[in-house]
Amino acid sequence: MKTTQERLYQVRIKVSEKTSQALRAKENNAVTKSILSISQKFDVSPVCTFDAFCEYCKEAEENGIENYSLYHWTKSIISNLDKRDKHLKSFAFYKGLDQVYKKEIADALYFELKDLLEEGLIEELNLIDNNPKNNPQPPGVKM
Question: Whole-prediction pTM value?
Fold first, then answer.
């Protein structure tokens, strides 16, 4: 009998350039304090998508890019100025090193962050799941 993999989720936000710079620099202001307070409540951390892409490329370059199937795609993203700006303002919430987590955590985190969206403190709020059919895939990734 085939078992189905448990669906896991991730919460992502898009913020202003100013808020992104403050979050990345770990500066305290009203917006970053709100985001970090909610993060701490759920034991998650906001991770800048651009920074995560850079770390991935650095790790691949240190260990051999042939072992990192998304290296070329990721490197092209961080090298493209338009895409770079987009990803600098995008943050995913990680639970420890886990990029995806149980629905209960994601739903509760999303609900709390929704207030920040409604107040205009963040620009976008998304709840995604790990089903490849629901998410665009980088070139060369098979579903």
Answer: 0.88
